[in-house]
Write a structure and sequence with these properties.
Elements lengths: L1 E3 L2 E3 L2 E3 L2 E3 L4 E6 L4 E7 L3 H20 L2 H17 L1 H12 L3 H22 L7 E4 L4 E9 L2 E5 L5 H14 L3 E5 L6 H13 L6 E3 L4 H10 L5 E5 L2 H11 L5 E5 L4 E5 L5 H13 L9 E7 H16 L19 H16 L3 E4 L21 E4 L6 H4 L6 E7 L2 H8 L4 E2 L1 E5 L3 H10 L4 E4 L14 E2 L2 E2 L4 H7 L1 E9 L1
Parallel strand pairs: 2-6, 9-10, 9-12, 10-11, 12-13, 14-15, 14-20, 15-18, 17-18, 20-21
Antiparallel strand pairs: 1-2, 3-4, 5-6, 7-8, 8-24, 13-23, 16-17, 19-22
Helix pairs in contact: 1-7, 2-4, 2-6, 3-4, 4-5, 9-10
Length: about 475
């Protein structure tokens, strides 16, 4: 643990050891706008060393039984849980999210990821068929693939990094992980627990740095046969191009432009607070957040009035204050990008009903330079507007009216993304009909973000390729072989 003038200085974790880097990047505290951390600016050399360590560790790790690997994953989960408060404080400071969200969502889910895959790896079965007339029996076996390249985003740093590491190593692979250079601290903290958990050197390697340098080197490395990436669709296009010469296996979990469809028989007492949460949780920086709200015309005015009133109750401010609902956005650049969308909507004739440019934002003295934005609700937006078509990834949601079921399905599907959707109605037949016709990998009805990790997670269209979950992650991180026995 290195310190320099109160700045935290991180090091890469390669082959079971922390290794300094020749150059570093500044990392900012989003709630203050100050540099507080130095992150390795890794490149080909560091990735090469990490891949070599992972390759060297693969034979021994892959030969361990699922039970042995499961026990180690459970131990790592216990160690993170023991330090939950320290992890939560670090995640809040590094990412800008509220301490409450980090305590109740991010870190508990990271713990659960390890426990879940520690359990699920013990319960997979293979296939077997017989051909009596040919005197043959066929069966399948699965084996780990090798070194997995894992690239995780800045919005849910440890949550999504462990969602990749846990199934990869549970299946017997070794990994080289690259967290976002903007949110690297909790990954570094986790590395300090690996030896105590019993993870052999080289099984988990973490290389910090930018996508352009460290990420590119990892994606292009010939000895990394699979890449699991969560992030933007634009970056995924680059990964696909750069990995194509090596025919790598890809899992890409990308952006969303998620609709909420609210019919006139919806229970607004449940719908409104849940939809406010689905719009503004984690500052709207979740790929599953609601950014387009379609409300049936008969209840549109009532919904809008109550929704805006509820949104105004959400307090924006210092993330370390447990009473705060909305923390800081990840960076100054991202804040300006989100603000630009609001300005574009206004220029197109839309109405901003609350939030950015409408309500005053009062911040404590220590947070005046932070990257804060109020929950913002925009109405009367055209479907072709960039605010209705592009992923904003901030505390901004658009509310529009619709008349018929057929119409709203067409409009909800009228974007390039297809990650998630929510449907609110008391009509059981309707929610089934609509759910089947929506072009979304996940559809929640009368709820949001209720997850069973056994089931597939992922999107359609530009929202990704592949799925993650108990069975899907197992299949991605293993190679299947069909064996035929003639008797």
């Amino acid at each position: 643990m290195a310190q320099s003038k109160a700045l935290l200085v991180l090091e890469n974790f390669i082959g079971g050891k922390f290794v300094p880097c020749s150059s570093y990047l500044d990392s900012y505290n989003p709630s203050t706008g100050d540099v507080y951390c130095r992150v390795p600016d890794s490149g080909k050399e560091e990735v090469e060393a990490a891949v070599k360590a992972a390759k060297d560790a693969f034979p021994v790790w892959s030969s361990k039984s699922p039970l042995e690997r499961s026990q180690i994953l459970n131990k790592l989960a216990d160690l993170i849980e023991h330090d939950l408060e320290a992890f939560a404080q670090a995640e809040s400071k590094d990412q800008g999210k509220t301490i409450t969200f980090a305590r109740t969502v991010d870190i508990p889910r990271a713990v659960h990821n390890f426990r879940f895959f520690a359990s699920s790896i013990l319960h997979h079965v293979t296939e077997c068929t017989e051909m009596p007339t040919m005197g043959c029996v066929h069966y399948t076996s699965r084996a780990p693939v090798g070194v997995a390249g894992l690239i995780s985003p800045w919005n849910l740093p440890l949550y999504l990094l462990t969602w990749k590491i846990a199934p990869a190593i549970a299946c017997g692979n070794t990994v080289v992980a690259k967290p976002s250079e903007m949110t690297s601290v909790t990954a570094w903290m986790m590395c300090k627990l690996l030896e105590k958990a019993g993870v052999p050197p080289g099984v988990v390697n973490v290389v910090f740095g930018t996508g352009a340098k460290a990420g590119e080197a990892l994606v292009c490395h010939p000895d990394v046969p699979l890449i699991s990436f969560t992030g933007s669709t634009q970056t995924a296009q680059r990964i696909t191009e750069r990995s194509a010469p090596h025919c790598k296996r890809l899992s890409l979990e990308l952006g969303g432009k998620n609709p909420a469809i609210i019919f006139d028989d919806a229970d607004l007492s449940q719908c409104i607070p849940t939809t406010v949460r689905s719009s503004f949780a984690n500052q709207g920086e979740i790929c599953l957040c609601t950014s387009r709200i379609f409300v049936q015309r008969g209840i549109y005015s009532e919904f809008l009035k109550r929704f805006v009133a509820e949104a105004k109750k959400w307090k924006t401010g210092n993330p370390s204050d447990p009473t705060i609902d909305v923390g800081a956005l990840i960076s100054k650049e991202h804040l300006e990008k989100v603000r630009t969308y609001v300005k574009k909507a206004q220029a197109e004739g839309a109405r901003v009903l609350c939030g950015e440019g409408v309500d005053p934002l009062a911040l404590p003295p220590g947070n005046q330079k932070g990257y804060f934005m109020l929950p913002t609700v925009i109405a009367e937006v055209k479907d072709e507007s960039c605010c209705m078509q592009e992923e904003i990834f901030g505390p901004v949601t658009c509310v529009v009216a619709f008349d018929t079921e057929e119409e709203v399905i067409r409009r909800a599907n009228g974007v390039k993304y297809g990650l998630a959707a929510t449907v609110w109605s008391g009509n059981v037949g309707r929610v089934h009909r609509v759910a089947h016709r929506l072009q979304s990998g996940l559809v929640w009805t009368n709820c949001w973000l209720v997850r069973d990790l056994n089931l597939p997670f992922g999107g359609m269209k530009a929202s990704g390729i592949g799925r993650e979950g108990a069975k899907d992650s197992y299949e991605f991180f293993t190679e299947v072989k069909t064996i035929t026995i003639k008797h």
